[in-house]
Amino acid sequence: MTPLLSLHQHPLIHPEAWATIESVGVGATVLLNIDTGPGSGMDPTWATATQRLMRAGVDMLGYVDLAYGARAIEQVRAELGRWAGYPIKGIFFDQAPTSPYSIGPVAVAVRAARRIGFDTLLVNPGRPADSIYRGLGAVLCTYEGTWDEYRGGELEGVRHGDAHLVYSVPPGQIRAAHELMRGRGARFGLATTEACMHPVYA
């Protein structure tokens, strides 16, 4: 299981967060979120900070919001293009739909990311989606919720190899959360003390 680390703090305002991840180095996979995505253009501060992480051996994924398939594909493509300016290896597509009738925009987004050269793609509906989504060839995030909910029982519709996103984990139980994710066959797992995927940016 590959642990995911969320990184949305600005490098100049929270250098300690970046330094901590840089010290981890190889084996860390970081979910980058500049401003609900890559922002409106290349940020030189983020570019320099991400280059340092790359040199330390940290893998990075860029955040793209699909708005449950409602966003125009032109906007999604533009954000993918902006992420291509950073040294990242893949994309985390958040707020994906689950209906088979809504897969079109997700499939187009995944193909666009692959054409750019991103090789690690996560699609997050936050719960089990129609089985047609497994044909996209991306890792599906089929659980998104709190630690109390996650450890409370079996997860219906979640398969080995999926990704799990777990919030509100007490600091002393992060390791236990990772162990439970491994036991449930997660390919990627985010265990965070934060309450959600959409932080207040600072």
Question: CATH H-level name... which superfamily?
Answer: Aldolase class I
Distance between the termini: 30 Å
Biggest sheet, spatial arrangement of strands: 1-2-3-4-5-6-7-8
The helix/strand order is EHEHEHEHEEHEHE
Low-confidence stretches: none
Structural class: alpha/beta
- Biggest beta sheet attributes: 8 strands, parallel, barrel
Into which percent range does the helicity of residues fall? 25-40%
* Nearest-integer average pLDDT: 94
- Strand-residue fraction? 15-25%
What is the number of independent domains? 1
CATH topology name, in short, is TIM Barrel
Backbone shape: globular
The number of strands is 8
Identify the CATH architecture: Alpha-Beta Barrel
* Number of helices, counting only DSSP H or I runs of 4 residues or more: 6
Radius of gyration: 16 Å
The CATH C-level name is Alpha Beta
Write up what this structure looks like.
This protein is α/β, with parallel strands linked by helices and 202 residues long. It has one domain (2-191): TIM Barrel (Alpha-Beta Barrel). It contains 6 helices and 8 strands. Strands 1-2-3-4-5-6-7-8 form an 8-stranded parallel β-barrel, surrounded by 5 helices. The radius of gyration is 16 Å and the shape is globular. It starts with a strand and ends in an 11-residue tail after the last strand.
